[in-house]
């Protein structure tokens, strides 16, 4: 279990968390402050999974963080962040980094991934698909277009609508076994079961395109944070890494606590940080709603 501590001389002293929740096997610990200062106080080689979405430096209107650093400064900040993650991540741990681009700046996610990577290996690249349209062809040859997910129109004559973001999966050596079937999907053609020696159940690898829609927000009042991911996203990352007894998950940029909620649902322990106490307050009320049974059912795939 990751323990947060600071030092007076050589003596470790506990840092006071902003809030803690203990429910069964899931210990949730939330810190208010700069994660790049606080995370190094975690024990080295102690964290099973880091799953997070950092600020993308694209001018998002956060209340505390200023999202418009000069590009080299931002990349240096991300690089420093990556080295801190690398230190605290267990040798068999996983680091899932969600980053999106903009139509004008499509290299941004890859630049961030490069800056963060340091000594880490890029083991998988997952695409978080927010909206998708597929041509569904019936047996009589007729076709229908099926569209699903959150669609935010852009009025551009140059750019297609950007319907996805990246989830970069880093590990120390690029060879960490993952639990693919924990996020598996049933076979469409059931004759696959039994045809292949390796297939014993009606579940196959989902692949690296993950369709995870947002819950639709209809008014600004319903949006307590300008850049969240759905709870299902960190939940799938943790499941893919593999859930084990006593595991520790960290989100260094926790916002309104989507990763904390995923951990509560999965019964695993969580440590999170944010510099903005208003977002942390929202995290706490989401967690309290969840623990008191007032939170609605998890979003389904
Ligand atoms: C993209 S948002 C994360 C949203 C989160 N995934 C969610 O679903 O709510 C990035 C967050 O990083 C926080 N942040 C920015 N700089 C930080 C820092 N140095 N330490 C901790 N949090 C920071 C911002 O306040 C913001 O809430």
Major sheet details: 9 strands, mixed
Elements, N to C (H/E): EEEEHEHEHEEEEEHEHEH
Q: Which architecture per CATH? A: 3-Layer(aba) Sandwich
Q: How many alpha or pi helices? A: 6
Q: Determine the structural class based on helices, strands and strand pairing.
A: alpha/beta
In terms of topology, how is this protein built?
Blueprint: E1 5-8, E2 11-14, E3 19-23, E4 26-32, H1 35-38, E5 47-52, H2 71-88, E6 89-99, H3 108-117, E7 121-129, E8 131-137, E9 143-149, E10 164-171, E11 209-211, H4 232-241, E12 248-251, H5 258-266, E13 269-274, H6 277-291
S-adenosylmethionine is lined by residues 34-36, 53-55, 62, 64-65, 225, 227-229, 253-256, 258, 273-276, 279.
């Amino acid at each position: 279990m990751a323990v947060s501590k600071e030092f007076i001389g050589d003596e470790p002293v506990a840092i006071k968390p902003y809030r803690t929740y203990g429910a069964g096997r899931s210990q949730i610990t939330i810190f208010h402050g700069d994660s790049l200062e606080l995370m190094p106080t975690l024990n080295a080689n102690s964290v099973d999974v880091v799953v997070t979405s950092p600020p993308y430096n694209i001018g998002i209107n956060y209340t505390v963080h200023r999202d418009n650093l000069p590009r080299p400064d931002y990349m240096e900040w991300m690089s420093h962040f990556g080295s801190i993650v690398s230190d605290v991540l267990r040798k068999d741990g996983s680091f899932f980094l969600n980053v999106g681009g903009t139509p004008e700046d499509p290299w941004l996610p890859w630049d961030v991934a490069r800056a963060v990577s340091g000594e880490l290996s890029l083991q998988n690249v997952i695409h978080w698909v927010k909206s998708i349209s597929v041509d569904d062809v019936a047996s009589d040859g007729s076709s229908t277009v099926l569209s699903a997910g959150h669609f935010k129109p852009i009025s551009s004559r140059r750019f297609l609508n950007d319907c996805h973001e990246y989830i970069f999966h880093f590990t120390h050596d690029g060879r960490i076994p993952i639990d693919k079937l924990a996020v598996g999907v049933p076979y469409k053609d059931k004759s696959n079961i039994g045809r292949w020696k390796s297939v014993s159940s009606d579940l196959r690898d989902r692949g690296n395109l993950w369709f995870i829609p947002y819950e639709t927000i209809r008014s600004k009042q319903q949006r307590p944070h300008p850049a969240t991911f759905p709870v299902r996203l960190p939940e799938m990352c943790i499941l893919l890494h593999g859930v084990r007894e006593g595991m520790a998950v960290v989100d260094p940029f926790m916002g309104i606590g989507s990763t904390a909620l995923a951990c509560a649902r999965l019964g695993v322990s969580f440590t999170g940080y944010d510099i903005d106490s208003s977002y942390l307050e929202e995290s706490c009320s989401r967690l309290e709603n969840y623990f008191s049974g007032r939170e609605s059912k998890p979003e389904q795939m």
